[in-house]
């Protein structure tokens, strides 16, 4: 019921508004038909008149636009024509700048004409051609003038830039305008300004700049003997060269700057002191001179050449000369100032001056580079040129400043010598003179020089600025790192093949290690203050060098041992020596081993320190004896004749073995070492006992054993002795009794 009521209510409200809407519609219909009548009237009469008026107006407007365009085009054509006429007049009068400006006017008129869309005149193409022809004509005239103003007389030679060809190069600059041109102002100015107006100046100056660099400026830097000289005639100025004997390989920067400045002054006076007057409209840009343009083009190349071929060579190589370098910096400043005054250079400091002022860093870099190059050359030179060093050998050195040297640059030049004798340690306890001393031996002379280089560089470091000192200290450490990396690789084959070189290399490493122990110490006062962690030391490198020397020598020892065993392997196991052929083979093997040892004894003589020599030779002789003992002890049957022959072979070894010990060149001094052979050859007594067994009867063997307390028992085990008895004696009751006593 509720819903019905609501609907009725809404319906009753709706009815009246519906009624009023219908009334409104009928009114609108009436109005609409009125409008239609009116519209028909307008279309038939008024519109017709209006259309006629608008059409007439549009036509007039278009007519006006066409006339204006034609007028402006005619005006531009006339401007173009006038410009070309004026250009021709000016050109005839050699008023080059005016002529060039007229050409530019013609060009801008033509540009305007070409920009008019929808109006392509056939004539424009012809005008364009005319303008191009006239421009080329003008450039040709200017080119001719320019060639008369600056004349290069160059030799036809192919190797341009060589001293020979430079000697015949000349530059002629015309100084006087001929009479009829005086009106046009200085010809140089008008020719160059005209080029500028036509936008061709850059190209012309670029070529000129390149010739200037190639034939005048660079040769003056590269050839110290060249002197520029000038000659002035009535209407021409000539710049040419003469050659004088140079005093040094490199000219000083002062001389070079002087010569180059002279060239620039000439150019400035006769050619380039010309403002490039831009056409009057944009006055803003005048004031650029030719000198500036040329300077922009060539300065970078010129200053590079000056740095690389002049300043680099002038960097001093030792710190005492650094103070005099102030002169070079001054003259570099003056040189730049002169060029700025002539406007070749703009305001700021250039690379050239930066380089000169940075001398300390260059000095350090150059010094470090020289040191490393020198070191590398030493490392790659022959190892076998040797010098003898003894416990009191010294490294000669310039005197070092003391701990409180007031001015550490004033170093006394007397030479203080660093000996191996005596080293004062921090707490000033004196050590025995041999604590740090090296045994007498031979080292490569290149390594001795390397050590001197290290000491000298450190001495130099202590006298340098802090930055330089640090760089030099590290370059000395680099020398040793480099040695460690370069030498074993570079000389690898020889170190493997040649036992003498392996021995020298071993000594070299020990010598370096020895000096590294104390190297930082002598310079500690100066170095520890600067190196932040106080690490002015080389001690950390010592173990590496000792290892390097040992490894190389031990590798060589392994090679030699291998050869000994290889030779003994051809001795047919020392069995059946009663067979002539077997005996010969064994005898030959023993002879070869002795020969090998003798040869080694000779090549290591006077090279290795005596104690190392004796250990090495002892070890190798021991290898041979030990191998022979093992082979003989393993035999199952030894006849009486076998035993005699084996004894003879062993006797050869015992008699001749010690003679391979010749550590010193003086024979009488070697006796001592030959008598001490049992000390160096571990199996010597074993070998002697074996010889006794080969000659003894059963009772003598039992006596030598002496219940396991005799000399035989010290060298052989019971099992080995029993085995030898079984091989040597036939199976009898006496043998059984003897065997029973060996236990």
TrEMBL record:
One of its GO terms (cellular component) is nucleus. The keyword Ligase does not apply. One of its GO terms (biological process) is protein transport. It is found in: Chromosome, Centromere, Kinetochore; Cytoplasm, Cytoskeleton, Spindle; Endoplasmic reticulum membrane. Belongs to the ZW10 family. PANTHER family: CENTROMERE/KINETOCHORE PROTEIN ZW10, CENTROMERE_KINETOCHORE PROTEIN ZW10 HOMOLOG. Residues 2-84 form the Centromere/kinetochore protein zw10 N-terminal domain. It comes from Charadrius vociferus (Killdeer). Residues 142-379 form the Centromere/kinetochore protein zw10 middle domain. Residues 436-566 form the Centromere/kinetochore protein zw10 C-terminal domain. Keywords: Acetylation, Cell cycle, Cell division, Centromere, Chromosome, Coiled coil, Cytoplasm, Cytoskeleton, Endoplasmic reticulum, ER-Golgi transport, Kinetochore, Membrane, Mitosis, Phosphoprotein, Protein transport, Transport. This is Centromere/kinetochore protein zw10 homolog. Interacts with NBAS and KNTC1/ROD; the interactions are mutually exclusive and indicative for its association in two different vesicle tethering complexes. Component of the RZZ complex composed of KNTC1/ROD, ZW10 and ZWILCH. Component of the NRZ complex composed of NBAS, ZW10 and RINT1/TIP20L; NRZ associates with SNAREs STX18, USE1L, BNIP1/SEC20L and SEC22B (the assembly has been described as syntaxin 18 complex). Interacts directly with RINT1/TIP20L bound to BNIP1/SEC20L. Interacts with C19orf25 and ZWINT. Interacts with ZFYVE1. Its main location: nucleus. It is a peripheral membrane protein. InterPro entries: Zw10/DSL1_C_sf, ZW10_C, ZW10_C_2, Zw10_middle, Zw10_N. Residues 588-742 form the ZW10 C-terminal helical domain.
